[in-house]
Amino acid sequence: MNLVFRMVVPAAFLAPSLALAHGISEADKQAMLAGGYWQYAVLGAKHMLTGYDHLLFLFGVVFFLTRFRDVAKFVTAFTLGHCITLILATFLGITWNYWLVDAVIALTVVYKGFDNNGGFQRHLDMKSPNLVAAVFVFGLIHGFGLSTRLQQLPLGDDKMGMLGRILSFNLGVEVGQIAALSAMLVVLAAWRRRPSFPKLAVAANTALMFAGGLLLLMQLHGYAHDSDPGGFRFPEEEHKHLHEDLDLAKPDPTRDNL
Q1: Quick check: 101 and 147 in contact, CB under 8 A?
Q2: Is 38 helix (H, G, I), strand (E, B) or coil?
Q3: For the segment 140-162, what is each residue's pLDDT rounded down to a tens digit?
């Protein structure tokens, strides 16, 4: 229990910064307005490298994987999933309230920690659902979350130009994912050789569940008090403590519509 406490307390302090992961800065907005494909690729890489919900989920996916073939299989399933929804949803203009999409993404982090700790077997007396299929489906959800953010940027009216910007952003996401995943695998490979790994594995995945739960609460808090979910806002505006703004207009009743 003491080990779990030492793992989850830092996660609690990190939770506010985790919720900021999807913000887009003023500098990034100005770069996007220039319309260059390179800027979209750079933003995609930055978004993945600071997208802690995506990284936490990936960390959970590869936590116990030791063979390259297994890592490739699961990461490919996740990548295919998020590429499909990122590209198609953005190009077709399919979106939803991003607070709610990110709340569902937070649940995928909780799910992975629960599964890694044998939660289905120990608490539900059942086998874990097919993990490759689950990772693919969760990839679709993560890609939709990326799409809701990308659609806040000016993509232009020209269809080919729009597609080029979407693909550039997606390419950047993949480069960022490879960089982050490489670092994770190096750290995990070194950790597995230490005697502390089997002792702390349950604590680490409990901390993963805890971090996902805090992210879920942060996103639902934002959704409950957001008065302008369609507006293009920046991190300090988007995530300020909205209890100070209870005198603002009521939330847009159409915000939940696809």
Answers
A1: no
A2: helix
A3: 999 999 999 888 887 878 899 89
